[in-house]
């Protein structure tokens, strides 16, 4: 699957978002991460794909977690805390740096500040 923002109907600045990875300033970067995370989950959903695991490479697709939580709350009628618990079991976070040895489960915090795994 390829997320391409260079499509008719998008504003010129939006069309450039997917033209270069890691390019631009902080505003461009956060917009790219929003597109990848939320847009990626929505694209999978539009294709009828329900992944059992979200494998996040570094923080670039971190907004996928928020979209997955929102989906659980909306579709499953879950509370925020229930959705956080469920999604935290479905996410693997991988940070590719020289000292990284293996993927780790993402630890999320509920509104009450308690850790969930």
Description:
By secondary structure, this protein is α+β, with helices and mostly antiparallel strands. The strands form two sheets. The chain has a three-stranded mixed β-sheet with strand order 1-2-3, with no helix packed on it. The protein has a two-stranded antiparallel sheet with strand order 4-5. Residues 102-107 and 112-117 have low confidence and may be disordered. The protein contains four helices and five strands, in the order ααβααββββ. It has helices at 12-15, 26-46, 63-76, 80-88, and strands spanning 54-57, 91-94, 104-105, 108-109, 115-116. The radius of gyration is 15 Å and the shape is globular.
List the helices and strands and how they pair.
Elements: H1 12-15, H2 26-46, E1 54-57, H3 63-76, H4 80-88, E2 91-94, E3 104-105, E4 108-109, E5 115-116
Parallel strand pairs: 1-2
Antiparallel strand pairs: 2-3, 4-5
Features:
alpha+beta
The stretches of 5 or more residues where confidence is low (pLDDT under 50) are: 102-107, 112-117
User: What is the helix/strand order?
Assistant: HHEHHEEEE
Kindly state the percentage of residues in helix: 40-55%
Radius of gyration: 15 Å
In short:
The protein has 117 residues and is α+β, with helices and mostly antiparallel strands. The protein has helices at 12-15, 26-46, 63-76, 80-88, and strands at 54-57, 91-94, 104-105, 108-109, 115-116.
